[in-house]
């Protein structure tokens, strides 16, 4: 069977998120240099994107639509699912905290830098491990245990759920724009690809 829509969308969103995390990492390593204004603006835009898009739209779709269905069919994933659900709760708070720590660095200066960088690296590591666990534990189980009827149902719910969450189709356009602005404005040699 070809890759179900739900898993394809999740995987695409993971890829976009990995690119953003990697760009953030490179940018942070590079530091503000001569152009402090655009440096902090780029970092703020990227964290804002993560907060508004993956945290508020991607995670809920997994927690509400995919995970319960897989757990219902395969009790073997119960532990992974509860760990992943817990990550979802923790990382929404973590990205807010990061945004505040970034403002600390921007407005209070160097003394706040290390705290932000350390927090970001922890966030990035946890997030990559999280996506890895979803793809290694949930995906194979879902492919093995969900029937064609399950997928029809979950793909439909998944697709329609993308609309009501925030009045969505326009929002996706706005996020697409924010995303390409990030790519455009991030100082060289940052690229998303
Ligand atoms: Fe997730
Ligand atoms: Fe995910």
What's the topology here?
Layout lengths: L4 H26 L5 H38 L4 H31 L4 H33 L2 H14 L6 H18 L8
Q: Tell me, what is the CATH class?
A: Mainly Alpha
Domains, number: 1
Helix share, percent: over 70%
Overall shape: it is elongated
Bin the strand percentage.
Answer: under 5%
Largest sheet: none
Q: What do we call the CATH topology?
A: Four Helix Bundle (Hemerythrin (Met), subunit A)
Distance between the termini: 28 Å
What is the number of beta strands? Answer: 0
Question: Could you list the spans in which at least 5 consecutive residues all have pLDDT below 50?
Answer: 163-169
Tell me the structural class: mainly alpha
CATH architecture: Up-down Bundle
Provide an overview of this structure:
- The protein is mostly helical.
- It has one domain: Four Helix Bundle (Hemerythrin (Met), subunit A) (Up-down Bundle).
- It is 83% helix and 0% strand.
- The chain contains six helices and no strands.
- Helix 2 runs antiparallel to helix 3 (78-108) and helix 2 (36-73) packs parallel to helix 4.
- The radius of gyration is 18 Å and the shape is elongated.
- The model is unreliable at 163-169 (pLDDT under 50).
- The chain binds fe (ii) ion (FE2) (2 copies).
- One fe (ii) ion binds at residues 59, 62, 84, 88, 130, 134.
């Amino acid at each position: 069977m070809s890759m179900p829509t739900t898993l394809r969308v999740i995987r695409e969103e993971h890829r976009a998120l990995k690119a953003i995390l990697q760009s953030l990492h490179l940018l942070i390593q590079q530091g503000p240099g001569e152009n402090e204004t655009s440096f902090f603006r780029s970092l703020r835009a990227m964290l804002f994107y993560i907060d508004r898009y993956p945290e508020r739209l991607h995670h809920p779709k997994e927690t509400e639509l995919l995970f319960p269905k897989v757990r219902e069919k395969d009790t073997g994933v119960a532990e992974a699912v509860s760990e992943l659900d817990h990550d979802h709760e923790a990382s929404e708070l973590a990205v807010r905290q990061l945004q505040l720590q970034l403002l600390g660095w921007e407005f209070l200066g160097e003394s706040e830098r290390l705290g932000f960088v350390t927090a970001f690296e922890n966030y990035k590591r946890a997030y990559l491990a999280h996506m890895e666990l979803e793809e290694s534990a949930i995906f194979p189980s879902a492919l093995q245990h969900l029937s064609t009827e399950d997928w029809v149902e979950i793909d439909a719910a998944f697709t329609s759920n993308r609309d009501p969450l925030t009045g969505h189709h326009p929002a996706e356009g706005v996020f697409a724009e924010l995303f390409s602005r990030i790519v455009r404005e991030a100082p060289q040699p940052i690229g998303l690809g």
